[in-house]
């Protein structure tokens, strides 16, 4: 049902919700009647998803499973000149050698820098070589295998062997392998290392060394290293499996990538360019990211697509739209090449193998075309004054080739239509709770809403407050309002998604990690609770003896499983007992309660990752059509009922 509700005042909507129910439990307690006897609104099947960009070292060092740092010597990871940072010389006993950054022996036209090892003295008992310290360590876990790859060549007369190993920082070799057959031309070497350890440690390093008098006076060049442990769904060049599992648990339906700000570039030439992120690793140079550190692009366009495929997420592709963070806009007359680059990107993804870029995709290992149902033109273009002409130009060109795709506008503009408007909310808890009814009176029948980024910070936007339960409950209230309006609000995503502990640029974030572990913030558990208990129909709820605040609710049903989900947030400091009745449905005598609750300041951290979580219990109903339930202070609860 679509009604034009712009003229309805909030109190009129409240009055509609307060139509008296036939079941009144007590004179004073709030009582809700779930109306399964009248048609509900259908809820968006892809309501919950993720927004992702590399911020806070969340890509390199985090989501991207590459364990080595500065693996292709393109730039210091703070974005400075290329160097050998994070690599160190290794020498034992009388061994003597140097390592230098060499620009005269390029692997190819993209990766021109190599690490050169010059051996002065070496013997069987005096090894020389170099090590990489990883991203704040190298995690070695029981039962895990590690695959290392690299390119190497040597001066004539030296063919190897080289020893490739993972060692503890105190020098214990945990696993090693040997390669030989080096020549004067670069070759790719691959070894598998399987440490036999019984505990997880991160105080380890990756070492390549030589121990032979045959190497004396010789030089060996190395480039493009990689080291991966188990990746999520065992993807080559994939994502860290524990992070993948934590993300998967949320059951995200869509993935917005590659940014956010990180799409735009600090300046126009520094924008994210798809064609620099695909193909073999040795063809990816990297770029200086928007969050002031080097992005290796080891994780690129096709890798994000694999993540969508492996996690069953619909891709929502942000495309560069001629505006960068230094507030410069590409003039209208010069947009042509930028539009062409986006068309090439879309052809790479969606084109058949008979197209130029579709065939490149096939060459990169993905012959099947990839559907991109949602295309977002730019990012937060409400910051610019040029969006009208830019949106129009990109929209017209893309629409011509892909008429059936859905277009997302990142700000209000009137030049061309859009299917969804991307709204962002970074607010305090109070402000977020006040937005509970934000979309209640929003006009239906026009474009839909994509809440592409939101996150409550209990101290206000972007500061350094903790991602605590107070913030998470405000998220829950806001999301409850979004779900009540999910006939209009089609997709929502918390942001930012990931944060490397100790490298926080934006707080709060959904998931924290360090080299050893990964944990959800309280907001993560709210996402999980609301997303994984997903309804397809939002049911009418009649309230008597009270209204919203401190309790906020939405009730939905899922036809295929006969489930009813009562989602309830209690922002108050006291428990709340209310009556819940059902009209037009009888439910089984036992329900399941899934609850996040605690103190407002409670949070999760590296040293205490499980302070806040979801507690599940079974409860009994006094009748098939009604029961009383007590909601804990400061809690978000899903009551799962099963229709007979
Ligand atoms: C990527 O494409 C742009 C033009 O669309 C081009 O200028 C640039 O050189 C390309 N980069 C690589 C690495 O191919
Ligand atoms: C369905 O959506 C309309 C707005 O289009 C709203 O007025 C009505 O309350 C919604 N019904 C339910 C059950 O949420
Ligand atoms: C809920 O509690 C009230 C007050 O104690 C009681 O009168 C009512 O019968 C209860 N309702 C159900 C369905 O158990
Ligand atoms: C890489 C980078 O810029 N890291 C930053 C992350 O955020 C912290 C806190 O804002 C900065 O100190 C780091 O420099």
UniProtKB/TrEMBL annotation:
Leading EC class: hydrolase
Pfam family for this entry, one: Alpha-L-AF_C
Reaction(s) the record says it catalyses: Hydrolysis of terminal non-reducing alpha-L-arabinofuranoside residues in alpha-L-arabinosides
Domain (Alpha-L-arabinofuranosidase C-terminal) ranges: 452-635
Pathway: Glycan metabolism; L-arabinan degradation
EC assignment: 3.2.1.55
SMART domains named in the record: Alpha-L-AF_C
InterPro entries listed in its UniProt record: Alpha-L-AF_C (IPR010720), ASD1_cat (IPR055235), Galactose-bd-like_sf (IPR008979), GH (IPR017853), Glyco_hydro_b (IPR013780), Glycosyl_Hydrolase_51 (IPR051563)
Keywords from the named record: Glycoprotein, Hydrolase, Signal
Biological processes annotated in GO: arabinan catabolic process; L-arabinose metabolic process
Annotated GO MF terms: alpha-L-arabinofuranosidase activity
Leader sequence segment: 1-29
Name this protein carries in UniProt: non-reducing end alpha-L-arabinofuranosidase
């Amino acid at each position: 049902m679509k009604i034009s509700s712009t003229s309805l005042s909030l109190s009129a909507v409240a009055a509609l919700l307060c139509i008296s129910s036939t079941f009144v439990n007590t004179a004073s307690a709030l009582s809700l009647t779930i109306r399964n006897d009248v048609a509900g609104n259908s809820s968006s099947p892809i309501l919950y998803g993720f927004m992702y960009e590399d911020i806070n070292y969340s890509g390199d060092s985090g989501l991207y499973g590459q364990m080595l740092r500065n693996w292709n010597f393109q730039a210091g990871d703070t974005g400075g000149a290329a160097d050998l940072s994070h690599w160190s010389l290794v020498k034992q006993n009388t061994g003597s050698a140097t390592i230098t950054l060499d620009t005269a022996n390029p692997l190819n036209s993209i990766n021109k820098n190599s690490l050169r090892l010059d051996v002065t003295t070496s013997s069987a008992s005096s090894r020389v070589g170099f090590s990489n310290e990883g991203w704040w360590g190298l995690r070695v876990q029981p039962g895990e295998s590690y695959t290392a790859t690299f390119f190497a060549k040597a001066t004539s007369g030296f063919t190897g062997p080289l020893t490739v190993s993972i060692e503890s920082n105190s020098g214990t070799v945990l696993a090693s392998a040997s390669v030989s057959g080096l020549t004067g031309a670069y070759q790719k070497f691959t070894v598998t290392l399987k440490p036999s350890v019984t505990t997880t440690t991160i105080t380890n390093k990756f070492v390549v060394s030589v121990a032979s008098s045959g190497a004396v006076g010789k030089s060996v060049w190395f480039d493009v290293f990689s080291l991966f442990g188990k990746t999520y769904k065992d993807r080559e060049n994939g994502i860290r499996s524990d992070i993948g599992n934590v993300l998967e648990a949320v059951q995200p339906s869509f993935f917005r990538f590659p940014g956010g700000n990180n799409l735009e570039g600090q300046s126009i030439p520094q924008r994210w360019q798809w064609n620099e992120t695909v193909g073999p690793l040795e063809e990816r140079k990297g770029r200086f990211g928007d969050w002031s550190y080097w992005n290796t692009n080891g994780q690129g366009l096709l890798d994000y697509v694999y993540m969508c495929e492996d996690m069953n997420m619909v891709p929502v592709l942000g495309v560069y739209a001629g505006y960068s963070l230094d507030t410069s806009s590409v003039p209208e007359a010069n947009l042509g090449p930028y539009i062409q680059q986006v068309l090439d990107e879309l052809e790479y993804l969606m084109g058949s193998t008979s197209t130029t870029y579709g065939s490149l995709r096939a060459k990169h290992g993905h012959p099947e075309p990839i559907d991109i149902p949602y295309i977002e033109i730019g990012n937060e273009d409400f910051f610019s004054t040029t969006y009208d002409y830019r949106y129009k130009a990109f929209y017209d060109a893309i629409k011509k080739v892909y008429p059936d795709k859905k277009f997302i506008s990142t700000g209000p503009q009137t030049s061309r239509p859009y299917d969804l408007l991307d709204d962002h909310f970074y607010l305090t808890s109070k402000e977020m709770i006040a937005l509970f009814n934000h979309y209640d009176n929003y006009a239906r029948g026009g474009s839909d809403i994509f809440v592409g980024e939101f996150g409550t910070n209990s101290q206000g936007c972007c500061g350094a407050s903790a991602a605590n339960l107070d913030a998470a409950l405000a998220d829950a209230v806001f999301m409850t309002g979004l779900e009540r309006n999910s006939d209009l609000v089609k997709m929502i995503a918390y942001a930012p998604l990931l944060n490397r502990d100790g490298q926080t640029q934006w707080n709060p974030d959904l998931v924290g990690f360090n080299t050893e572990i990964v944990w959800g913030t309280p907001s993560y558990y709210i996402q999980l609770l609301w997303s994984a208990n997903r309804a397809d129909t939002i049911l009418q709820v009649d309230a008597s003896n009270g209204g919203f605040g401190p309790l906020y609710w939405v009730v939905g049903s899922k036809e295929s499983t006969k489930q009813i989900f009562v989602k309830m947030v209690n922002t108050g400091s006291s428990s709340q007992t209310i009556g819940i009745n059902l009209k037009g449905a009888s439910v089984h005598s036992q329900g399941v309660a899934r609850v996040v609750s605690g103190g407002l300041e409670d949070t999760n951290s590296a040293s205490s990752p499980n302070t806040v979580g979801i507690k599940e219990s079974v409860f009994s109903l006094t009748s098939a059509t009604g029961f009383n339930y007590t909601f804990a202070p400061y809690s978000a609860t899903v009551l799962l009922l099963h229709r007979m």
